[in-house]
Amino acid sequence: LMSLILGLLRSWNDPLYHLVTEVRGMKGAPDAILSRAIEIEEENKRLLEGMEMIFGQ
After folding, report:
1. TM spans, by residue (predicted)?
2. Is 41 exposed, middle or buried (0-12, 13-18, 19+ CB in 10 A)?
3. Which percentage of the chain shows pLDDT scores above 90?
4. Sign of the C-alpha dihedral, residues 25, 33, 9, 44?
5. pLDDT digits (tens, 9 = 90+) for 11-56
6. Residue ranges per structural domain of the chain
């Protein structure tokens, strides 16, 4: 179960990075979308760091 959780969190790193990058480059994209994408990316990173700390990986 632990490895599944870590794998799931890790699997979101690249898609979230690309989402933030693409939204930043879009003309006329609402600021709310960009800030929410950044917020989700940061939360995923925090969760992954916490899980890695707990599981010692």
Report:
1. none
2. middle
3. 88
4. positive
5. 999 999 999 999 999 999 999 999 999 999 999 999 999 999 998 8
6. 2-55
Chain mean position to CA 22: 14
CA 7, CA 36: separation in Å to the nearest integer?
Answer: 23
Joined together, the tokens standing for residue 23 give: 């939204």
Assess contact for 53 and 43: CB atoms under 8 A: no
SS3 letters across the chain: CHHHHHHHHHHCHHHHHHHHHHHHHCCCCCHHHHHHHHHHHHHHHHHHHHHHHHHCC
